[in-house]
Design brief:
single chain, 41 residues, mainly alpha, 3 helices, 63% helix
């Protein structure tokens, strides 16, 4: 929430090999995509 890193960079930083996998995992965990989460914060 407090970084200006791109979502793809965050996904790679935490160990995901592609953005689609990260988006799916994030949405399952939080009910919203990372990009939309950022816009709502």
């Amino acid at each position: 929430m407090t970084t200006d890193m791109k979502v793809i960079d965050i996904a790679e930083f935490v160990g995901f090999t592609n953005l689609a996998s990260f988006n799916t995992y994030f949405k399952n965990a939080y009910g919203i995509t990372p990009g939309r989460f950022r816009k709502n914060v």
